Here is the input.
Amino acid sequence: MKKIIMTGGGTAGHVTPNIALMPSLKEAGYEISYIGSYNGIEKKLIEDRGIPYYGISSGKLRRYFAWKNFSDPFRIIKGYGQAVHLMRKIKPDVVFSKGGFVSVPVVLAAKLCNVPAIIHESDITPGLANKLAIPGARKVCCNFPETLKYLPADKAVLTGSPIRRELFGGDPSKAISYCNFPDHNKPVLLIIGGSLGSKAINEAVRKILPELLEHFYVIHLCGKGNLDEQLKGVLGYSQFEYANAELTDMFALADLVISRAGANSICELLALHKPNILIPLSAAASRGDQILNARSFEKQGFSCVLEEESLTDQLLLDTIRKVYDSREQYIQAMSQSGQMDSIGTIMKLIEDVSK
Here is the structure.
């Protein structure tokens, strides 16, 4: 039996593509181990699936001044030593990395131990963690054609993002039950603000809620600590801090989605052919990758984009009406996208480098 070490963490976006690959890896006979941080979001997500999990020390290399910049390099060096030890203990045939700073020492340890590594970059421009790891990788997968120019030509492979199989098997009736909707006589608007939520999106949605409820049922994933107690029990409005397994059913029920523009999230919307409005993280709050992702999807006719800096409740309401009225155009564009068999392409790469 071949062995693979998977790595990636820090956000769910650095874990879910790994999870999407796991069924195919198991079917191909791979024994899977996972290396992540001690207490990152990836730990529970992976352990819940019964995969052996190994935590290592990790730190973040920032492009700005922070006191942790003085201590984190030592954490990374410690993590590198731990990763080397695990490589020699597990003896994998291949490493697959989804990025995040915990993955850097793992990929570099693989190089030291002569284990081939494959990296997946979700965004249009590579993040700092993947930039540091690319020299240790055999191949670098990416989601967008625009990304190829930023990667070494002999390593870059356009694969798209692995999508979880279960995402296609949602049950709308279950979502109606979760949300306590009285029936399915109105279209459903699903709002996803990310694991921490978005203050700007949450406030704009709640200001126009009476107008929305005239035409839609609303599912609002508002982020940890962002539930509005005054809105509990409002007929047709269902708010959650986040959704796990239930999200598959919510997607199946949704007619229109408002979302951040993380690469994995928007690739799921594309795969499901869900008309959507993207509100990317602002450049002030990020390195601007979500803006680039969103604009690429808008250019291809898959999405409508609103900048967070210009977001108002009236603009959001008008855009929701416009996109819903034009939903068939978005569905047609997505259905004609020629979406790649991401899992099949990545599995072939894994098989090729692990021979």
Observations:
- The two ends are 12 Å apart (CA to CA).
- The mean pLDDT is 91.
